[in-house]
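In response to reviewer comment 3 from the previous cycle, which asked for concrete evidence that the modeling workflow produces usable outputs, we include below a single protein chain processed end to end. The sequence was submitted unchanged, and the resulting structure tokens are shown without manual editing.
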Amino acid sequence: MSLLSLSNITRSYDSGNGQLHVLQGLDLTVEAGESLAVVGPSGCGKSTLLNIIGVLDRPSSGRFLFHDRDMQQLDEAALAQFRNREIGLIFQDHHLMPQLSVLENVLLPTLVPGAPTDPAGATGAAKDLLSQVGLAERLAHRPAQLSGGERQRVAVVRALINRPALLLADEPTGALDQQSADNLAELLVELNDRHQVALITVTHSAALAARMQRVCELRNGTLVDRPAAQ
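The workflow returned the following structure tokens.
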């Protein structure tokens, strides 16, 4: 059974000069534990696609199944709960709370009502994950005391804390220097393999895309598979 399936997805917006068609009849199937890069020029709709998969936005038409569950049938409250349970989100900007410590930032998703992580075990799980990404000595640090690469690693751990089935990463290495970007790419691949969490990353980085099992190009509103080595 596929983790998620998008069938004939469209997304249009009112641009003021008529309808702007961003996604047009897009199909995508992702298996559990798979890694996928979505590439394409700026403005082609990559972030729109990620927002739909992350149930931050709804398609104009088409069908979206996640674990055979029809996402269009869920109301906003159910979508929010689903997102917190099943999806981890990583952005180019880490979005860490500056007044909180590393550990407190990681634990934030576990405080949402209905979170799947047992509060009693959340701190231990957070410390274990932070140790896995080399931040065991940074638990009490504030974001301002960390490097850019370290802040992004905290954001990755925060995205994993509720043990989601899917990680969505929107240009996760875009704001990093080359060494930090390479380290983060290696970390994402390692976590994808170790935790068997599916990974979809939108990226302009050929190096990051090449590390994924599959690469799809968003072209004219649809996805076209291409060899990962290109």
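Helices lie at 46-53, 76-86, 102-107, 119-132, 148-160, 178-195, 206-210. We consider this sufficient to address the reviewer's concern, and the full set will be provided in the supplementary archive.
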